[in-house]
Amino acid sequence: MQHPKDQFVARLQTSFEDGSFVKLTLGHPSDSAGALRKLLFRPVVIRGEKRCSVVSRFSTRDETKNLGFSEALERVRVTLGAEFLSANLFTETEEVQLELGKKNRLRIMRASLTPATLEHDRNKSRWVDSHAPYLEALGVTDSTGRVRERMGDKFRQIERFVDLLASAFRETDLGACASGESSDAVPITLCDMGSGKGYLTFAACDYFQRVEKLRVSVTGVEARADLVALCNRVAGECSFSQLQFVQSSIEEFQFPRMDILVALHACNTATDDALAAGIHAGAAMILAAPCCHKELRTQVDEAGASGPLLDVLRYGVFAERHAEIATDALRALLLERAGYRVRVSEFIAAEHTAKNVMLIATRRGNNPSGPDIVAARGPLDRRIAELKSFYGIQHHRLEELLLGER
To answer: Is the pTM of this model over 0.70?
Structure first.
């Protein structure tokens, strides 16, 4: 009988040849993989030639190469069983799962996926259509699709947000269950906590429907009643029936099921409230751009009264930056402890703030109590304690929400 790995590679080759290939993920890295955590494959067209984009995902960076399909197939053949012990292949008609180890397993499930989007990643403008009616209704563009004067920064922010959203989405398997028009397809649920005027909420909804061709249910949570009314009116006028805005604080809002959490520029510990809500709801993907890091500032100032940071933290601008870095570093560590892979990326600033850091977290597996995640908590707890000790931090909102008093 043919080995499961050979069967898997044969099906991958067939999908390359008949054009049904959608995407491939190699995971479960072995010790020989070193810092490499995952390989992501998808088809692209570059200068009219169909090729395979291969993203090598490390702990803190991505590297992308565009290979011919024969080269990509050989990369998979050599890597599987050596550097990576699992693989998920998605074609237009099936999902194929391979697990290598003491027991080699191959699972083949029928699927009905939309064909892969073949545009090269550099063509980001396709993700945000400047002629979209919601952009005109929100005052970003005029009736011809031209970006209005003084709204250029906002439009670039929207483009950058959707770029990061799309990149993170490709790390997950959310698309498999939401594809197609069947009533069995489960819509992706996205919650934008602190949605404001809804620019990015509308853009996210539009991206999943127009670009990914997926069913989606999007909720914007905003405390200001006038903005909620405005956004619901625009959603109705622009036929976004699957998009709604509700008036609530982030802390009080209850959302039982959530696939994607977005929290951009939620002030101070409101970011922590949103992160905790996403983690507790089992979100597969979290995007947060923190703002107004007030909670740790006083604690960092006190730590700077003596010790090695005295001549750094006595300057207000340096103390503020250290408080921001310490706050978000703790958030990243706590997300890792909760079972997420975390990246930190620069994000174009909102119109009225200079904050430009985005925390991007994708869930590692479906079981937050899995052995690998549980085993990592001890070392992460030590790193959290060391960071808090260094900056003299006594309390941190997200830690208290996730772990209580320790």
So the answer is: no
